[in-house]
Amino acid sequence: MTIHDISFDAIIAACDEYDELGKTQFLRKYGFRTAKTYMLFWNGKFYDSKAILGAAHGYISPNSLPLKSAEFSGGLAETVSVLESLGFEVVSDPPPSSNPNWTEAEVALAIQFYRGHAPKIPGKSSDELISLANEIRTAARMQGLRGNEKFRNADGVYMHLMHFQQLDPNYSGSAIGKSTALEEKIWSYSDKELNRAAEAVRTRISAFEKTGQVEQRIPEPNSAVLKLLIASSDPVESQLGHTLHLWQEAKRNQGKRASLGREPGQIKNSDAVSVIEQRVRSSASGFDEVTSTNESYEKIVIDHPDRFANDVIAIAKARLAEFDLATPTDDREELEAKIKEIILRPYMISEPPAGNPTPRREVSAGFVYVRDPRVVAYTRVRANGICELCAQPAPFKRPDGSHYLETHHVVPLAENGPDTPQNCAGVCPNCHRALHSAENKDHLAKTLMKKLASI
């Protein structure tokens, strides 16, 4: 008998044994290693696909024996093919076998909850605890963290809350576990500082739930000043350090000089609030950095209005509306409306926008791409009503009086082309169709590339 003789029931029997023995004992018994790429997903649980298939061979009949790891492949051709042919779901990039350490954002939410409920912490099955677990799980996911089936569940969150009893001077019983340096740091916050930190996390969660964009996971900063800011218990200083660090990485990803200039020195010699107010008044937040990171001086002001002057708050609100205008979108009507508004604000496209080298694709009725309105607006203004391929005037005008040209991506988005000014051209409808469908479309594309390179 071969792996192709394995039945659905044999797979289920192997899964039942896996559950009974546990992952470690099951793999040891059958001589398999943990799956690296493909996992069987059945009844809400993940199983090592190759090990399950090998064990299932022993359940085909009373006389059949399990297969050894060396007797068949764990890849697409054998293991995955057999499992899928039997109707099972096989997933790649399986979840980790263990859960990641808690982050500062998660700990802040948990300690705020503990302080608000101690000494009577709600039970594991209470609505309050389940709600907290959901919030903490979202905070972890917004940072790109993943885990196994117990990832930040109510049981785990409850046990984590019990760790804080070691730090609670009002608790006299025997505490569970051992607190970490991070927990001790956040426990030292005053109630006001803790509430600010927790609300800043909820603001980030709200942005994540709205956009679905995972926060960038970037290396530690080299700047000593940034390290101090990020580690600060003052939420304004911490958010400023986080913002500047993200900007630095955004510039680096855009091929720009990633220096922070005079910023660290000015922050060191002054307080963060004064520096932020100065930057907001001078509109120092760059569109490219803000639309890449969703972070700005203005956002810090709005997140902590009690720390800033009224005129700075008013400027920040107006400026944030412009950042929203510059935010990429997958809605065609919204994109067109944004383009028109941006063209009326020449300072928003006074320099070529960075755009997005890897625009995100969303599912609608079909696939649509998240487009940068500043890139389209810049391209239209650059073309100035003249087709950038045939050099003829636009064939007609829109009802608002603007020249009708279409935006063409030289390297199509569907072929992983970037949504940047260097890859976009304003062309007339005839040239646009020719670029996509003419027999000499490759020659036309090369001609257009040369023209764009010379601009």
Automatic annotation (TrEMBL):
<dbReference type="InterPro" id="IPR002711">
    <property type="entry name" value="HNH"/>
</dbReference>
<dbReference type="GO" id="GO:0003676">
    <property type="term" value="F:nucleic acid binding"/>
</dbReference>
<protein>
    <submittedName>
        <fullName>HNH endonuclease</fullName>
    </submittedName>
</protein>
<feature type="domain" description="HNH nuclease">
    <location>
        <begin position="374"/>
        <end position="433"/>
    </location>
</feature>
<dbReference type="GO" id="GO:0008270">
    <property type="term" value="F:zinc ion binding"/>
</dbReference>
<keyword id="KW-0378">Hydrolase</keyword>
<dbReference type="GO" id="GO:0004519">
    <property type="term" value="F:endonuclease activity"/>
</dbReference>
<keyword id="KW-0540">Nuclease</keyword>
<dbReference type="Pfam" id="PF26345">
    <property type="entry name" value="ScoMcrA_N"/>
</dbReference>
<dbReference type="InterPro" id="IPR058807">
    <property type="entry name" value="ScoMcrA_N"/>
</dbReference>
<dbReference type="Pfam" id="PF01844">
    <property type="entry name" value="HNH"/>
</dbReference>
<keyword id="KW-0255">Endonuclease</keyword>
<dbReference type="InterPro" id="IPR003615">
    <property type="entry name" value="HNH_nuc"/>
</dbReference>
